[in-house]
């Protein structure tokens, strides 16, 4: 960077869900001659902004904030957030909102200017013009910085063929797991004879499905085809593949295997694609459905035994900071989080009491939302009626079953194996509250 321009012309502020938009907007501004510093805001509340931002951010001439439903629904869409942002940047630096998806913007967020890319729909040229005209100074336009690559694919234009479930605006955290998945897929060296799949495995209710849905949306710009395949039963897999065949203009054959072969042959000539097999039972169940051509495959499963056909990644429960942030996001009112230490501590205790399990946290938040209970009241009720009773209350969003039903399904699966059923009963009898996992490892 030259001596005359040691600070950033623009700070681009966003949350991780919108990183595809950040990449596109940042590159467009760089092509217009602006130096851009990117800063995501969805860090833990206990992290210090100044440690994360650095001098370039504090001296930015213009601050651009990407607005979306995920951002508005986050803890950062509050008056306190905007005051902090203004206080830590250059005096007089304008704060410009760029709306990347339609979202009701809280009145507490007052920006100097708003640029609506959502209204541009899928018109990349119009969106580019609005960004440059609304942000780039005339003195810098048409003087692109050296070495600036072409922008990535326009995020406003989704994959031509896709059938993703709705995105969860309350998705929180999981940055390390998301980065690990993307790094593993991105590092694949060119076309492969056998598609290297990534398998997310873990307990029921731990968030496997939501992680893969968020992954698909977050990196959608990298694909021409994204296809979601419910993999609980062979019939649901066949139905999903028939649907993909229809979308690709492929005639369905009498026998499912022939349709599968036709789809996989066509995928070899259709650019980048991502297939997601959700809730697969075992490698043996879906191995014949795995495509042989180069492409990306993600699998979710409760079964950890996938190493023969895929790289298994175990998904743990949420970190405490993620669980507390999730509850804060789900329970915030229209004025934003109150920031009270007691309220945050109550959320922390709720998260710890519920074991940081995403489905249980969502169910608890739904119940508190429906009944108007505060976290402290919920804790009292939990102590009074017990966990089993509370896990029947509250209908979680983006999940068809509550935690009790999820546990029942897991138990039914265990009972299919007499040995596993006997071991479960023995463990429950010997230690009904908890059992050290390493004990099983020592005797196995």
UniProtKB/TrEMBL annotation:
<dbReference type="InterPro" id="IPR027417">
    <property type="entry name" value="P-loop_NTPase"/>
</dbReference>
<dbReference type="InterPro" id="IPR000157">
    <property type="entry name" value="TIR_dom"/>
</dbReference>
<dbReference type="Pfam" id="PF13676">
    <property type="entry name" value="TIR_2"/>
</dbReference>
<feature type="domain" description="TIR">
    <location>
        <begin position="12"/>
        <end position="126"/>
    </location>
</feature>
<dbReference type="InterPro" id="IPR035897">
    <property type="entry name" value="Toll_tir_struct_dom_sf"/>
</dbReference>
<protein>
    <submittedName>
        <fullName>TIR domain-containing protein</fullName>
    </submittedName>
</protein>
